[in-house]
Amino acid sequence: AVEPSAGQKFFSVVCSIPATKPGESDVPIDGVAKKYPQAIASGESLGCAVCYAPPTDGTAVTNAELIIPVHTPTPSEIRVALLAGPPAPKLGVGPASSNVYVSADVAGAESGTRTAYIYNDGNGALQINGLKIETSFPSGAPGEVFSLASPPDAGLSVPAYGVLLVGLNWNAAKVKGSGANEMLRITYFDPGAGKSQDEVLQLIASDSMGALRPTADPGAAAAYAGAKIGVPIALNGSGSKSGAGWSNTPDSYSWNLAAKPAGSKVKLNVDVVGPTVSVTPDLAGTYRFELVVWASSAQGILTSAPAHVDIVVGN
Fold first, then answer.
1. Which of 32, 45, 66, 94 has a CA that sits 20 to 30 A from residue 78's CA?
2. How many angstroms separate the Cα of 126 from the Cα of each of 36, 50, 71, 298?
3. Phi, psi values for residue 26, rounded to 5°
4. Average pLDDT over the chain, rounded to whole?
5. Contacts of 22 (CB under 8 A, 6+ apart)
6. Cα(291)–Cα(196) distance, rounded to whole angstroms?
7. What is the mean pLDDT of residues 154-159?
8. What mean pLDDT do residues 137-155 have?
9. In what order do the strands lie in the sheet with 75-82?
10. In the 3-class helix/strand/coil scheme, how is the chain assigned residue by residue?
11. Contact 7, 62 (CB under 8 A)
12. Is the Cα torsion angle 137, 141, 146, 151 positive or negative in sign?
């Protein structure tokens, strides 16, 4: 599907299973030759032809995304940006749940850091005009548990396909009751609307009451030795532990791409049930991935501290 619906005026998509042998023809997925859901056998692939129809009446082009739901076997989505017209930014936030969770021992007055991610999925620079931490209820009041690790002196610019890491300090000694709900307000300039807009990321701290928390393990760098451009990397968090969770394995795994070579268009910002996820590097260099896991327990949702792995990708 092409989303948002406004983008359907400019973009249309026809998909097919490309031929794998000389003399064969592509088989369109059109409800006649083939229809969805469609299994892709070993050696097959899915090809999507995108048609762009430029407006002739002066209407501004709306950028869009091609969204393809897949099961690998974990349900997920392939999202392909459809960009036309003048270069324009497209803001995205991470973690994918739009929530930053912290499980902390309030009585022990623990403190630490978390990372929020601001992704620019567009092909033009993204101007960030403000970052502010507020209470969620009521909104607007300054946050108490969370604070910006490095408040910017002025506006920030995120390059096309880039990522901005926002460090968040937290202090469990300031949690009142069983938890805290605050938010990171991101103010950015939207050239399509011609004005500043706001996006929020929820910041949630809960009392672990001394329980053993989950441990995230994205695997050692040596396990990913030999990674190459264009070859999928199977990130594996199966070494993670659930702590005081109901099961021996975490309920969910949250992956983010924290660093990549300049110019790379790769992005990873997913919450998945299983421990593995695939990402395909497009440039040589070092990629840094963050994993956070969480599990259900008698104390509620327990969240791990972030864990990272740096993977060197060669040609």
1. 32
2. 36, 25, 32, 42
3. -60, 145
4. 92
5. none
6. 32
7. 90
8. 88
9. 2-3, 64-71, 75-82
10. CEECHHHHHCEEEEEEECCCCCCCCCEEECCCCECCCCCCCCCCCCEEEEEECCCCCCCCCCCEEEEEEEECCCEEEEEEEECCCCCCCCEEEECCCCEEEEEECCCCCCEEEEEEEEEECCCCCEEEEEEEEEEECCEEEECCCEEECCCCCCCEEECCCCEEEEEEEEEHHHCCCCEEEEEEEEEEEECCCCEEEEEEEEEEEEECCCCCCCECCCCCHHHHCCCECCCCEEEECCCCECCCECCCCCCEEEEEEEECCCCCCCCCEEEECCCEEEECCCCCEEEEEEEEEEEEECCEEEECCCEEEEEEEEC
11. yes
12. positive
Taking residues 43-59, report their average pLDDT: 87
Token reading at 179: 């938890």
The token duo for 227 is 């990674």
pLDDT at 44 over 80: no
174 phi-psi bin (left φ>0, alpha ψ -120 to 50, beta other): alpha
Would you say 233 and 279 are in contact if contact means Cβ atoms under 8 Å apart? yes
d(C-alpha 90, C-alpha 111), whole Å: 33
Angle ∠(92,94,96) on CA atoms, nearest 5: 95
The type of residue at 144 is E
At 178, the pLDDT band (50, 70, 90 cuts) reads confident
CB atoms within 10 A of CB 99: 15
- Cα 274 to Cα 135: distance, rounded to the nearest angstrom: 33
Return the structure tokens found at 35.
């229809």
Q: What is the mean pLDDT of residues 155-166?
A: 94
> Which tokens sit at 308?
């990272």
**CA distance between the termini of the chain:** 34
Instruction: Encode 184-198: b = buried (16+ Cβ within 10 Å), e = exposed.
Output: bbbebbbbbeeeeee
